[in-house]
Amino acid sequence: MRLTDLPAAIMAILGLTSAAFAFEIEERARYPAANPETELRIISTADRAVFEPILLAFQQQNQTISIDYTIASTTELMKAVHAEGEAFDLVISSAMDLQTKLANDGFARTYRSPATDALPDWAKWRDQVFAFTQEPAVLILSETAFPDEAYPTSRDELIELLRDQPDRFRGKVGTYDVRTSGFGYLMATQDARVSENFWRLLEAMGRLDTQLYCCSGDMLHDIREGKLAIAYNVLGSYAQAQLEDGGGYRIVMMSDFANIMLRTVLISTKADNIADAQTMINFLASLESRPDLVAASGLPAVDTDALQSNVALRPIRLGPGLLAFLDRLTRRNFLRNWEASITQE
Question: All domains of the chain, ordered by start, with CATH?
């Protein structure tokens, strides 16, 4: 597909022009097999440190499969697959809406197996997009800024705190720049669907020179460095993994609601190695049976019981509903309101 053939909605999502064609790679790693016979090409948004335990465990069971693992941002991944037609076998992303878009636009192969059939209905779509983790968006609070037990646990409390103490938090609040972050856009639109408090919170943050970020890792870094006191909508799995490496902050699961992102995988229609891609799909779909990998990666497996035990946890459902905010006019209007609230210009 030529870049000029892309629908306008996708051009808007990616901010593409004909001059911006090649997708950007954050990192690439190869994992040679013990007895190499085939190679599995994966493009993913998951950091290498997070996903490597899963890749190595997969190879222990499949010692003839080498792995070529490419890491890109959510929007760059979309650009690579949708705009440039890169021949990856598997596509793994935290942006559920963009994964749904890929499947809807004919970029995903259909696959069924006992492992995929065992997934709950809300964790798969059209036998093309499969969830293998459930990861909450959380609030991160610096231990330096919040040394005692008095800290916000809901959006109402956070709004009240920011409004009552603006000097304390001016320039010290961070969140995603949803204009460039696919995951950030997904979380923001889901917040807006669930609660009107989102816009009140955004306006409170906008008055405080809120810092905007591309990704969770950068926000967590600045929390640790003392540049931020609060980071909103950080990916909980990354926060937990980095907390165990050094601390410095508190993870707060908001009591009013917590959106649960489902990390998903699909087999690309451009896949050269379909058989090994299917083997990996089965492996990921069965992640709940490997608590050792859940612990090593920090990626919570799909677990219906865990969701039922806490009514504040709200998994984002896979399906066509995710496409609504990818509509060009809907996205433009959402970003206009978001910019007016967060920049206060």
Answer: 3-134+262-309 (3.40.190.10), 135-260+328-343 (3.40.190.10)
